[in-house]
């Protein structure tokens, strides 16, 4: 059974709510959800400032929680939803985790490592290819980030 656009939008709304948690903590508002068998198995939101951890991006936090939930670092047959195109660190972790499908909201032309600054989704040196789709609820995801940075200028 395939995933519908409505399912993708619903999970991205969940990720957006998590991004708002990050924003409330003064973090860049990015949220992530790991889904397996139509069920959320893990969540994460940006927390590098609060956690004093440069690797505490929303995706990494969610991947760590998902690994604990399934008892394995390989997260086969899962989908990761994240509000912003992942960076190079996160794309490396997504590949190593064997995430089947990646769905993100806002594109990141300057630092995105899926299809912009780097195209790691197609990198020949990675031994796992991640199916991906960008632009799901793109306007909402982009607006959250834009308003966050505008408020700080």
TrEMBL record:
The active site is at residue 59. Keywords: Hydrolase, Metal-binding, tRNA processing, Zinc. It is an enzyme of class 3 (hydrolase). PANTHER family: CYTOSINE DEAMINASE FAMILY MEMBER, TRNA-SPECIFIC ADENOSINE DEAMINASE. Catalyzes the deamination of adenosine to inosine at the wobble position 34 of tRNA(Arg2). Belongs to the cytidine and deoxycytidylate deaminase family. ADAT2 subfamily. This is tRNA-specific adenosine deaminase. The lineage of its organism: Bacteria, Pseudomonadati, Pseudomonadota, Gammaproteobacteria, Methylococcales. The gene is tadA.
